[in-house]
Structure formats: structure tokens, C-alpha cells
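Q: How would the C-alpha cells look for this protein?
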Amino acid sequence: MDTIDLQQILLQVQSGRLGIDEALQRLQHLPYENLGFAHVDHHRQLRQGFPEVILAAGKSIEQISAILRSLLQGASQILITRLAPQQAVTLQESFPAAEYHPVSQIMTFGLQEAPDRGRGLILVMSAGTSDIPVAEEALLTARIMGNRVEPIYDVGVAGLHRLLAYQEKLQEASVFIVVAGMEGALPSVVGGLVKRPVIAVPTSVGYGASFGGIAALLGMLNSCASGVAVVNIDNGFGAGYVAALINRRE
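A: Here is the predicted structure in C-alpha cell form.
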């Protein structure tokens, strides 16, 4: 339930068109609904502008379905992250409106109808093709939150001329999400070229001494470029969410 819906209920009660009992029935799941195994936060969209996001990892298909049914009572845009392909097949049997994005393992509801809330372009960049799944998680998160998002993939420092070919696009963007594994150098390079915030995302891509993304994480944390902030390893969702908040008009 968003702010407009809540205002309508209150106005209808004020005018006498809606009785107290019926209004209470509509509001019974606010601020949260207790499912026993989860407290579904129905006030999050009112507080933060976007509904609670379902992290599928570690949850059974029955738990995911129950949380999803609860959220669908009032939310138009819903995001499920880290959803395995077989879980997606099962969910789509009960929720045909769902759209599954296998590269990022994200499921969305209402992606195409997401309202336009962004001030400008969010540019999602990956150092390599192997970083694309995390980059796509960031891209879809920012997009369903109402932003214009474009990708530029496989422009890492092993061939810097590839990045420099996009100079015009780099100057157009309002926020950057830069995803890289290995030594994690790309965010520093981008940060030295642009005047907008850069959100760096280390990935677990790399050989043994990359330590599952720790090398990239430490490299990004030690960036000499100003304006670079860092999220956790493989946390494309977190990067997309922060970028959407930075880019939001209101």
C-alpha cells in the first residue's frame, strides 16, 4: 500500500463513504504482517519509497510464496533476489505475472510499469564478462526502482581503450555502478574520469590470490580516486539500491 492508497482510505473515512470496520480491514496488515516465520514490512514503501525485497537464498519455496502473496496485496513493483532457476519455475506456475531474469537470478513484478523517479542516467559498468551477473543484479534493482539504467560491459583495465571509447556516455551519467573482480581496478579509473558518484562492487571473480573477491574489495576501499564508495562482495542489489536513492528526484 503506497501513500496515495492510504490517503484515499483516510479521505473516504472522513467523508463517510467508508466505514470504520472496513477501513480497519484494509489496514489490518499495517505496519507488518506476522507470517510466523517472517514479519512482512508493509510500511517500508511508505518509509523508504520501495517495498520490502525478498532474498530467496536460504528460504523454502513455500516461504517465498507466502511472503510474495503478502506483498502483492499492496505493492505494484516487487523484487526477489538470488532466486534459483528451479525456484523460479515453481513460482511462475502460481504467479504467471512474474518475470525471471536468469543471468542475475532475479524475479520482478511490474518492472515495465515502474514509475519514473530518476533525475538522470545510472550507468552500470563491468570490468569483464564474468562480472555481468552481479552487474545485472544492480541494473535490474535500479531499474525497478524507477530509473533509466544502461549497461556498458567488458571494459576493464586489461584493455583501457575500450573504456575510453565511451567518454561521451561517461559524461552523461548521474551515477555510476562499477563492477569488477580480480584486482578491482576499474572503479578507480572511472572515478578519475567523472564528476559523479561511483559505487564500486567487488566480485568473487578471479584466481586463487583474489581470495573470493577480498583482493578486489580491498583495492576498491583503498582507491585513490575521490567519490568512490564500496559495497560488499557480489552485492549488486545493494549497489543498485544506493544508486537509485542517489538518483531519486524527490
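The first helix runs from residue 3 to 15.

The CA atoms of residues 9 and 84 lie 38 Å apart.

Upvote if useful.
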